[in-house]
């Protein structure tokens, strides 16, 4: 069950950042000089909706809703033989000019957050080196509407990677 929860957590992250556009908007003051960049999630609107995957015979579902240009909320759950179990409450949020993916899962006392550390056109990577596992989450968007998520880190001194695959429900 912990692997299923991790899967849901990381699937959402992948989904949110896989589409590939830059997540910053340049703001201009009245005189027209560019002075700063405002970070938003507006290029991630495609994540809204329902994403479905499978792991160990369980259907995994993540649902995302845009609350504003700087905050999305989500939830992840699994379905096994018509029994639905909520696994995590999720968010994607701009905090102090940086993008964070956070998960509130039952087995953790606190919400766990991962900071966006790398962004390419179809790939986003989040890290939290203080977390036990995973410490790194990589989302890669694959056309059409497919998502490949890899969570990685060290377990008992050995490097471990777990792959997850999702498809957006149309």
Summarize the structure.
The protein has one helix spanning 2-17; strands spanning 24-27, 36-39, 49-55, 58-68, 71-80, 83-95, 98-105, 112-120, 123-127, 136-142, 146-155, 158-168.
Distance between the termini: 27 Å
Give me the CATH superfamily: Calycin beta-barrel core domain
Mean pLDDT equals: 79
Number of domains: 1
What's the shape? globular
Unreliable segments (pLDDT under 50, ≥5 consecutive)?
4-36
**Structural category:** mainly beta
The biggest beta sheet is recorded as:
10 strands, antiparallel, barrel
The CATH topology is Lipocalin
How much beta, percentage-wise? over 45%
CATH hierarchy, class = Mainly Beta
CATH architecture: Beta Barrel
Number of helical segments?
Answer: 1
| Element-level helix/strand string | HEEEEEEEEEEEE
Looking across the biggest beta sheet, what order are the strands in? 3-4-5-6-7-8-9-10-11-12
Number of DSSP E strands: 12
Proportion of helical residues:
under 10%
Radius of gyration: 16 Å
Oligomer: single chain
């Amino acid at each position: 069950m912990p692997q299923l929860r991790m899967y849901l957590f990381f699937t959402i992250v992948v989904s949110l950042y896989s589409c590939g556009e830059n997540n910053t908007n340049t703001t201009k003051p009245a005189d027209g000089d560019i002075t700063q960049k405002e970070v938003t999630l507006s290029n991630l609107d495609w994540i809204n909706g329902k994403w479905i995957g499978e792991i160990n015979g369980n259907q995994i579902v993540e649902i995302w809703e845009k609350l504003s240009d700087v905050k999305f909320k989500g939830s992840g759950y699994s379905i096994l033989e018509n029994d639905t179990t909520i696994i995590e409450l999720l968010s994607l949020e701009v905090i102090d000019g940086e993008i964070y993916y956070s998960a509130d899962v039952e087995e953790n006392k606190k919400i766990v957050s991962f900071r966006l550390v790398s962004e390419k056109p179809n790939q986003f990577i989040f890290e939290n080196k203080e977390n036990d596992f995973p410490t790194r989450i990589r989302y890669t968007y694959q056309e059409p509407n497919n998502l490949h998520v890899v969570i990685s880190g060290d377990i008992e001194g050995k490097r471990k990677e777990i792959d997850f695959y999702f498809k957006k429900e149309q």
